[in-house]
């Protein structure tokens, strides 16, 4: 299990204990956080789980696959170097303390 800090666009912060093996999209949806939609259910088909991983953590995550990079071209909010899809980040103990910012819009 890892504790992940989700920061909504409003600035509201939520520390969530996320079970190992669960992805960030599912964790945020289970908590009802604003800024995470996950319309395709994690099928890598919609980009509505777009999020920003704090730069300090970007190098600790597996590199995004080409399909994720392609979907990131379709985000409603600005794409940044720290942009990722929450459905593609699977939580492990090594991600304890991860900080993720949610965008203002997914559509």
TrEMBL record:
SUPFAM superfamilies assigned to the protein according to its UniProt record, in alphabetical order: 2Fe-2S ferredoxin-like
Annotated Pfam families: Fer2
Alphabetically ordered keywords of this record: 2Fe-2S, Iron, Iron-sulfur, Metal-binding
GO biological process: P450-containing electron transport chain
Stretches assigned to the 2Fe-2S ferredoxin-type domain: 2-106
InterPro entries: 2Fe-2S_ferredoxin-like_sf (IPR036010), 2Fe-2S_ferredoxin-type (IPR001041), Adrenodoxin-like (IPR001055), Beta-grasp_dom_sf (IPR012675)
A GO term for molecular function: 2 iron, 2 sulfur cluster binding
PANTHER family listed in its UniProt record: FERREDOXIN-2, MITOCHONDRIAL (PTHR23426:SF65), FERREDOXIN/ADRENODOXIN (PTHR23426)
Family: Belongs to the adrenodoxin/putidaredoxin family.
Record-given protein name: (2Fe-2S)-binding protein
């Amino acid at each position: 299990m890892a504790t992940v800090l989700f920061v909504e666009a409003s600035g509201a912060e939520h520390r969530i204990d996320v079970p190992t093996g669960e992805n960030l999209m599912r964790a945020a949806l289970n908590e009802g956080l604003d800024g995470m939609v996950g319309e395709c259910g994690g099928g890598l088909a919609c980009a509505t789980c777009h999020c920003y991983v704090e730069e300090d953590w970007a190098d600790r995550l597996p590199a995004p696959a080409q399909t994720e990079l392609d979907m990131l071209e379709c985000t409603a909010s600005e794409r940044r170097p720290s942009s990722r899809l929450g459905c593609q980040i699977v939580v492990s103990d090594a991600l304890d303390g991860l900080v993720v910012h949610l965008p203002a819009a997914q559509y």
